[in-house]
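Sharing a chain and its predicted structure for anyone who wants a worked example. Both blocks are below, sequence first, tokens second.
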Amino acid sequence: MRNFEVTFIVDPVLSGDEIKSTAKTYSDMLSQEGCSIVHNDEMGLRQLAYPINKRNSGIYYCIEYTCEDPGIIDKMQLALKRDERIMRFLTISLDKYGVKYNEDKRNGLIGKKERPKKGDEQKNQVKRKVAQDLTKIEGIGPKIAQLLHGAGILTYKDLSEASVPDIKAILAKAGSTYEIHDPSSWAEQSILASEAKWNDLHRLQKTLVGGVAAKAATGEEE
């Protein structure tokens, strides 16, 4: 059995019953000639790419069918050509890829995106993280905050859980300008920020210079 598809445009000035009757004419013709109808697709009113018979739109139909003798195609195309109700038509042979494409399209796998359910959408919104202002951490400026966000460290909690070597690797990847920064106190600061202990955070930051303990920054020994 070979697979074919015929698409035709019906004059939109016809009544609804006449349009349906026109489509049925060719579906019945194929069945009477021993063809098996795979799918009747009433695509409805569509804008034409260019005017045809002073019409700017038409009713589109597409019939996919299988048959053993392709001789029916010539007979049907002659009938379509003589039918004043038909504005244009086209018959094509479908290979296995065309058949699979049509099947996937009918099953909603092509051309349609499944919209999330309202409940699922709300759950996804809850799961989304909101990037926090990491510049509140002593030693982190806007550029470094941007680097951390880009690496997936969006919140104070993320920063508190990130290891010092991992953060150093992010900074080193951005170049020597950032590689010199010491993130050793960022986790401790981030824990206080994530718990909204701002007074404690400010007290801690007074002991830091550029995000580093003052003694360590000046090279003093205890």
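Comments welcome. The chain has two domains: 2-106, 134-218.
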